[in-house]
Amino acid sequence: MSLTIHYAETLITAARHAADAAEVTVSVTVLDAGGHPPAFRRDDRAVLISGETSTRKAYPALQLNAPTADLVDLVKPDGPFHSLPTALDRPLLFIAGGAPVHRDGRLIGAIGVGGGAPEQDHSIATAALQELPRSR
Question: Model's pTM, two decimal places?
Fold first, then answer.
């Protein structure tokens, strides 16, 4: 099972609604299971770097199959993954706002939100996930 363009667009739309409700301008990146971005959106008023941060939050959420909010302590200087942010070719950002996307118990992609405070980005990503159908 894969993350279809329909699901990717559903996540983008749901994230946009959650961001609007929170009065936050953000960028949203959706990745499929292969790490390819089938959907991306940056609000007109979002800071430009939010596009990059949303993508850099989505990758570790996908690769580690965990919300980035749960990974923050692992990459601190005394954490077990402290070198991970710089160990790979792909830049990873371990700040709240990335979350894996599951369908029928399988990892099919990830969403990353950037532009708000980390807690806001996490809430927007989580709200977007609630809009996906649970099963076929």
Answer: 0.92
CA 84-88-93 angle, to 5 degrees, is: 55
- 80, with CB counted inside 10 A (0-12, 13-18, 19+), is exposed
Token pair for 131: 């809009």
Beta bridge partners of 106: 103
How crowded is residue 21: how many other Cβ atoms within 10 Å of its Cβ?
11
- Look at residue 136 in the predicted model and tell me its pLDDT: 41
Query: β-strands 39-42, 106-114: how paired?
Result: unpaired
Q: What is residue 41's three-state secondary structure?
A: strand
Residue 130, CA atoms < 13 Å, CB-side half-sphere: 9
pLDDT 10s digits, 58-80 = 999 999 999 999 999 888 888 88
**Tokens linked to 45:** 């008023």
pLDDT tens profile 78-114: 888 877 767 777 778 899 999 999 998 899 999 999 9
Q: What does the alpha-carbon distance between residue 71 and residue 118 come to, in Å, rounded to a whole number?
A: 13
